[in-house]
Structures are given as C-alpha cells and as structure tokens.
Amino acid sequence: MSNTAAKTASGHNSTLPVIAVTSGEPAGVGPDICLRLAQRKWPARLVVLGDRELLAARAAMLGLDANAIEIHHVPLPKSALAGRLDPANARYVLDLLDVALAGCIRGEFAAMVTAPVQKSIINDAGIAFSGHTEYLAEHTGTPRVVMMLAGAGLRVALATTHLALKDVPAAITKSELETTIRILHADMRNKFGIARPRILVAGLNPHAGEGGHMGREEIEVIGPVLDKLRAEGMDLVGPLPADTLFTRNVLAGSDAQLAMYHDQGLAVLKYAAFDEGINVTLGLPIIRTSVDHGTALDLAGTGKASPTSLFAAVDAAIDMASRRSN
Ligand SMILES: NC(=O)c1ccc[n+]([C@@H]2O[C@H](COP(=O)([O-])OP(=O)(O)OC[C@H]3O[C@@H](n4cnc5c(N)ncnc54)[C@H](O)[C@@H]3O)[C@@H](O)[C@H]2O)c1
Ligand SMILES: N[C@H](C(=O)O)[C@H](O)COP(=O)(O)O
C-alpha cells in the first residue's frame, strides 16, 4: 500500500493521503480526542493506532461510536482505566510509535500525528524516555532534530528541549545552535513553503545578557553563530531579550521564533494558542505533528477534553504531506 493508495476493495478513497494517529497514553485524553476525529470530514484517510477494546470502552463512556473511526489494533497488555496510570502499559505506548514510524518509513503512511504520552510513567516502567521528539530522532538515526510548536501566528522553535534547567547553558554550544538554526531554516522552506524565512532568536539571559553583565552566552555563543549564518544570507534577528521578543512590534514580519529553552518559548505559545497549537518535529526524515497539550489525566473519560489541537495537528500533517508529494 502506498501512502496515498488505500485498499479500494474496503471502500477507501485511493487518492487520499494515509495518516497514522497514535492514541497515546491509554489512561489519558488521547483515546478521547482520537474518537472525536470522526466529527470532521478529512481530506485524508486517518488510521487511529490503539487497542480496539480500549477505544470501544472510552467511546461508551463518552457516548461516541468507535466504529466511526478506522482503528489499527495494537493490543494493550492490561486494560486501562481513564485517569489511572499503569507502568504495565508503558511499552504499549511505545509500540504505537513504533508501528506508526515503521509505516511512515515503509511509505504506508504519509505522516504520523501523535496524541499525548505520559513521560513519567514510561520512565517509571524502567524505559528511559524524554519525549516523542527525542525518541523519533533516535529511532530514525537522526542526530539532531528541532521541536517547534505553532499556533496563533507564532512558530516557536526550541534550541534545547527536555532537560533540566540547570543543564541548559552547557547544552547551547555554537555547533548545536548552528545545527538547530540550519534545520529550522530548511524546514521553514520545505515543510512550510516559506522561501526566505525571517527568524527571531532569543538570548538566554535576562535582557539578552545586558551587555555581558548578566551572562555571556549572547556574546560568546549566540551572537557569533548568528553572524556566521547571516553571512550566508539567512535572515536572522537577535539575540533578542526574550521578555520582549514576543511583543507585537518585535514579532511583526517574522516567520519563526527560536527560544533557548522549553519554557522560555512554550509558556508564551501555550498562553496564546493552547486550543489550536501544534507540535512539529523538524529535521526528521518523516512528517510528525502532535498536539500541544499533555495527557490531562483529570479529563480522561469526562468528555471535557478539547480535540481542537489534535484537529490542527492533523490538518498540518495533511498540508505537509501534500507539499511533499507536489
Ligand atoms: N505531546 C505530548 O505527548 C505531550 C505534550 C505535553 C505534555 N505531555 C505530558 O503530559 C503529562 C501531563 O502534563 P501537564 O499536566 O503538564 O500538561 P497537560 O497539558 O496534560 O495539562 C495541563 C492543563 O491543561 C488541561 N488540558 C490539557 N489538555 C486539554 C484538552 N485537550 N482540553 C482541555 N483541557 C486540557 C489539563 O486538564 C490541565 O489543566 C506529562 O507527562 C507531560 O510530559 C505530553
Ligand atoms: N514539550 C512538549 C510540550 O510541552 O507540549 C511536549 O512535552 C511534547 O514533547 P514531545 O513531542 O517530544 O513528546
């Protein structure tokens, strides 16, 4: 099966891209929001990866019909209860990713879209895991990828992702930062169709280091990398004080914003766009998008979880897949 050629014998439209949607942590809201994909007509064939009984049980709780979505059955080792994490099901969450990734690499899926996982329970089960981003990089043999969340007109990429705040300064080296900006720049063109992206780059320290009086990373690391890449023709602005980078006047005309660490950028993005935000992994050989929220264990099975971020992530994956196939 090609990523646009479904089995016509089973009634699928053979010209639509096939998108894998992993339903994520079984105790979280992932199954709930995946069931809600049936609310919309999509210009794609969506295949939800998950345990058939789990999805049927969650659908019953929510008054929905699990038969309204296409399910690729991946078995749970143990039945899952909404809101109740169980390390016995941690491997299942990774199985979903492995099936989706293998399908993308074989060309059966045009893209994968991920519902949220609970990083802590995977680690509690004895499997080192810091996020989809890092997992997919490792499992595709990609040395460096970039996490970017987008919504409300912002595209916020991160120079560092899931690591302790105390480890951030050492992780921002000239070579890592240069690679990050190159990936961001290339994928703004390839995945978003922006010919000459203008990228704002945040400093690390308050007031971008205040001329070296509040930290020297801007002078010793960030500034020289920007100068080098500007000399190649990239449109880069910074290092800018992060507290005002996201004000309207500074943002005007920019295509993406690079934050130095997770919460420097994502607090702003989630404030501005929590209902519509998406997460994209740049630099991967496959297309992967995701929701901008977590497992929301408090909402699983209640019907209160909004599916709109998942809808936006699916829309974005379909767009990127169509750009790639053109
Ligand atoms: N893409 C992902 O896999 C992803 C993304 C973010 C967080 N996480 C993980 O999720 C777990 C819980 O994280 P958290 O508590 O920091 O964030 P969270 O996003 O799960 O919850 C934060 C708040 O937002 C609400 N919320 C979340 N999703 C919602 C939705 N769809 N509709 C309405 N309200 C929603 C929750 O009820 C909660 O009040 C952690 O393990 C974290 O690592 C995973
Ligand atoms: N940093 C993301 C966020 O806050 O939304 C989230 O943890 C998901 O990351 P992965 O896509 O790497 O799982």
UniProtKB/TrEMBL annotation:
The active site is located at the dimer interface. It is found in: Cytoplasm. HAMAP family: PdxA. Catalyzes the NAD(P)-dependent oxidation of 4-(phosphooxy)-L-threonine (HTP) into 2-amino-3-oxo-4-(phosphooxy)butyric acid which spontaneously decarboxylates to form 3-amino-2-oxopropyl phosphate (AHAP). The keyword Oxidoreductase applies. Homodimer. It catalyses: 4-(phosphooxy)-L-threonine + NAD(+) = 3-amino-2-oxopropyl phosphate + CO2 + NADH. Its EC number is 1.1.1.262. InterPro entries: PdxA, PdxA_fam. Pfam families: PdxA. A divalent metal cation binds at H162, H207, H262. It comes from Sulfuritalea hydrogenivorans sk43H. Pathway: Cofactor biosynthesis; pyridoxine 5'-phosphate biosynthesis; pyridoxine 5'-phosphate from D-erythrose 4-phosphate: step 4/5. The lineage of its organism: Bacteria, Pseudomonadati, Pseudomonadota, Betaproteobacteria, Nitrosomonadales. GO terms for molecular function: 4-hydroxythreonine-4-phosphate dehydrogenase activity; cobalt ion binding; magnesium ion binding; NAD binding; zinc ion binding. Binds 1 divalent metal cation per subunit. Can use ions such as Zn(2+), Mg(2+) or Co(2+). This is 4-hydroxythreonine-4-phosphate dehydrogenase. Its cofactor is Zn(2+); Mg(2+); Co(2+). GO terms for biological process: pyridoxal phosphate biosynthetic process; pyridoxine biosynthetic process. Keywords: Cobalt, Cytoplasm, Magnesium, Metal-binding, NAD, NADP, Oxidoreductase, Pyridoxine biosynthesis, Zinc. Belongs to the PdxA family. Substrate binds at H132, T133, K270, N279, R288.
